[in-house]
Automatic annotation (TrEMBL):
Organism listed in the record: Halopseudomonas salina
Cofactor dependency: pyridoxal 5'-phosphate
Pathway where it operates: Amino-acid biosynthesis; L-arginine biosynthesis; N(2)-acetyl-L-ornithine from L-glutamate: step 4/4
Subunit text: Homodimer.
Protein name, entry field: Acetylornithine aminotransferase
Length: 404
C-alpha cells in the first residue's frame, strides 16, 4: 500500500468547490464527545456534526454494526430489497404513526420525496389545481432546487433561475397568517416542530394542533420536517410526540444514521399508495450499510434510559450556559428542547454568533450558529456530565476573551 497523502486546510481552497468556508482545523479522530485535529489538539464537541453524531464519535456498537454489515453486503440497488432496510423500516413503523417508509440519503432528499408525494397525492385525489405548498419564513428544508424553494430563506434560492411555482410562505408561529393563506388549492403545509437553521425556535403552545385543524379543514396534508429535531433529540423519538399532533408525512435524517448518510420519509398507507412503481426512486436509498447502522442507532436511542437522559443533559447545559452568562451577559435566553438548543445573543452582542463560534474553537470547544444572533448546540444525546462541565469552562474562557 502506498503512503497516505498528506493534506491540510489549504488544500480545501486548492481543490474543493468554494461553497463552504470550513474552519482552520481538520479533525482526524473522534471518541464520544471529543475530537482531535491533525496537530493532536482536543475539542469538546457540542456541534455534533450539526445534529448528526447523535451517539458521539466512534460509538462501539455502531462500529460493530457497520463492520458486520460491511463483511456481508454493501449495495444491491432497488431492483432488489435487503434485510437491513426491511428491519429498519419495520422498526420505524412500529415506533411511529407511519405505515410505510421511503429511504434516501439526506434530509433534502427525504423532503424532496415528501413534497413530490404531497403533490402527487393531491393531483390524483383532487386534481392539478390543488398543488400549493405552504411553508414558513426562515425555514430550512434542504438544498435541492425544490427544497430551497420551499424553504423560507431567499438567500438560498436566489440566482438559480425562475422560482418554482405554487409555493407560499407565512411567518412561523403565526396562525392568523396561515389561516389567510391556506385554501382548497393547498396540497400541503410543511412545518419544523422546532425551527433549526432559522434560530432554534420551538412551535408555540397550541400552534401545531391549530395547523393540524386547518389542514384537515382544507383537505391538505401536514408534513413535519424532523430532519433536525428527530431521533431522540427533544427527549422523545420524534418532536411531534410531545404535541399529540400526528402528521401525514414525516421526514427524518441527520441523527438517523448517527453519522452514516441515510434519511427516511414516513407516511400512511393511503398516501404512500400514490407513489406507484416508477414514480420516484433513489439509487442508494435503503443501502444495506446505512440501514444496518441506523437500525442500531434506533435500537439504542429508542429506550427509556437514553430519552430520559436527554432531559437531564438539557438541564445541565442550560444551567451551565446561564451560569457562565451571569458574568458576561452575552445571552438573553436559551431556547429549544432537549439537546437542540439556541442561546440567543443579547442586544449588545447581536450579529456576533460567528465570533463566539470562533472564540470557542480557539478554546477547544465546537459550537454552531443558527443565524448571526444565535449560538446553537446539538451534542451527542449521551454526552457525559464531565464533558458538559468541561465545555462550560471552555465557553467561559472564550466569552472572557471576547469581553475584554
Amino acid at each position: 500500500m502506498s503512503d497516505v497523502m498528506q493534506v491540510g486546510r489549504a488544500d480545501f481552497d486548492r481543490v474543493m468547490v468554494p461553497n463552504y468556508a470550513p474552519i482552520d482545523m481538520i479533525p482526524v479522530r473522534g471518541e464520544g464527545s471529543r475530537l482531535w485535529d491533525q496537530q493532536g489538539r482536543e475539542y469538546v464537541d457540542l456541534a455534533g456534526g450539526i445534529a448528526v453524531n447523535v451517539l458521539g464519535h466512534a460509538h462501539p456498537q455502531l462500529i460493530d454494526a457497520l463492520t458486520e454489515q460491511a463483511g456481508k453486503l454493501w449495495h444491491v440497488s432497488n431492483v432488489l430489497t435487503n434485510e437491513p432496510a426491511l428491519r429498519l423500516a419495520s422498526k420505524l413503523v412500529d415506533a411511529t404513526f407511519a405505515d410505510k417508509v421511503f429511504f434516501a440519503n439526506s434530509g433534502a432528499e427525504a423532503n424532496e420525496a415528501a413534497f413530490k408525494l404531497a403533490r402527487r397525492w393531491a393531483h390524483e385525489t383532487v386534481g392539478p389545481d390543488k398543488h400549493e405548498i405552504i411553508a414558513c419564513t426562515n425555514s430550512f428544508h434542504g438544498r435541492t432546487l425544490f427544497t430551497v424553494s420551499v424553504g423560507g430563506q431567499p438567500k438560498y434560492s436566489q440566482g438559480f433561475g425562475p422560482a418554482l411555482e405554487g409555493i407560499s410562505h407565512v411567518p412561523y408561529n403565526d396562525l392568523a397568517a396561515l389561516e389567510r393563506q391556506i385554501s382548497s388549492r393547498t396540497c400541503a403545509v410543511v412545518i419544523e416542530p422546532i425551527q433549526g437553521e432559522g434560530g432554534v425556535i420551538p412551535a408555540a403552545p397550541g400552534y401545531l394542533q391549530a395547523v393540524r385543524e386547518l389542514c384537515d379543514r382544507h383537505g391538505a396534508l401536514l408534513i413535519f420536517d424532523e430532519v433536525q429535531s428527530g431521533m431522540g433529540r427533544t427527549g422523545k423519538l420524534y418532536a411531534y410526540m410531545h404535541s399529540d399532533v400526528t402528521p401525514d408525512i414525516l421526514t427524518s435524517a441527520k441523527s438517523l444514521g448517527g453519522g452514516f448518510p441515510i434519511a427516511a420519509m414516513l407516511t400512511t398507507d393511503a398516501i404512500a399508495a400514490h407513489f406507484a412503481v416508477g414514480t420516484h426512486g433513489s439509487t442508494y436509498g435503503g443501502n444495506p450499510l446505512g440501514c444496518a447502522v441506523a437500525e442500531r442507532v434506533l435500537d439504542i436511542i429508542n429506550t427509556e434510559q437514553v430519552l430520559a437522559g436527554v432531559d437531564a443533559r438539557h438541564r445541565l447545559l442550560v444551567d451551565g450556559i446561564m451560569t457562565v452568562n451571569r458574568e458576561f451577559s452575552v445571552f438573553s435566553q436559551v431556547r429549544g428542547q432537549g439537546l437542540l438548543l439556541g442561546a440567543v445573543l443579547a442586544d449588545a452582542w447581536r450579529g456576533q454568533a460567528r465570533q463566539i463560534q470562533e472564540a470557542a474553537q480557539r478554546e477547544g470547544l465546537l459550537v454552531l450558529q443558527a443565524g448571526p444572533d444565535v449560538m446553537r448546540m446539538a451534542p451527542s444525546l449521551v454526552i457525559s456530565e464531565a464533558d458538559i462541565t468541561e465545555a462550560m469552562q471552555r465557553l467561559h474562557k472564550a466569552l472572557g476573551h471576547l469581553a475584554e
